[in-house]
Amino acid sequence: MAAITDEQVETVRGLVASIPSGQVSTYGDIADAAGLSSPRIVAWIMRTDSSDLPWHRVIRASGRPAPHLETRQLERLRAEGVLAVDGRIPLRDHRHTF
């Protein structure tokens, strides 16, 4: 992976912070909005620098949460009125666009 700049990190952080309660975005949505070449860059940034952000509002393109975060993520989303159907968030109902 190419070096990630502080500007890219701050752009991703700003986009994640802007996702309203009750909505979600995918790693790919954020990558596109930030002008990044891959959703994996967003995932790396989220993994290393997102504890103070609404990280639970970022999901995979399939609508599923990350397996290791599934229980906590779905609980937090449910508290915001985002209900999973068979473990998947219906993106057509809850997707935030930038």
TrEMBL record:
Gene3D superfamilies named in the record: Winged helix-like DNA-binding domain superfamily/Winged helix DNA-binding domain
CDD domains: ATase (cd06445)
InterPro entries named among the record's database cross-references: ATL_DNA_repair, MethylDNA_cys_MeTrfase_DNA-bd, MethylDNA_cys_MeTrfase_DNAb, WH-like_DNA-bd_sf
Residue stretches making up the Methylated-DNA-[protein]-cysteine S-methyltransferase DNA binding domain: 11-82
Keyword terms, alphabetized: DNA damage, Methyltransferase, Transferase
One of the record's GO molecular function terms: methyltransferase activity
BP term (GO), one: DNA repair
Record-given protein name: Methylated-DNA--protein-cysteine methyltransferase
Lineage: Bacteria, Bacillati, Actinomycetota, Actinomycetes, Mycobacteriales
